[in-house]
Amino acid sequence: MAIGAKIKELHDLLPQGITLVAVSKFHPVEAIKEAYEAGQRIFGESRVQELLIKHETLPKDIEWQMIGHLQTNKVRQIVPFISLVQSVDSVRLIECINREAQRIDRVVDILLEIHIAQEESKTGWRYEELVDYLRSEEFSALKNIRVRGVMGMATNTDDEEIVRADFEQLAHHYNELKPLFGEEFDTLSMGMSDDYALAIGCGSTMVRIGSSIFGDRY
Question: Under a CB-based contact definition with an 8 Å cutoff, are residues 23 and 3 in contact?
Answer without folding.
Answer: no
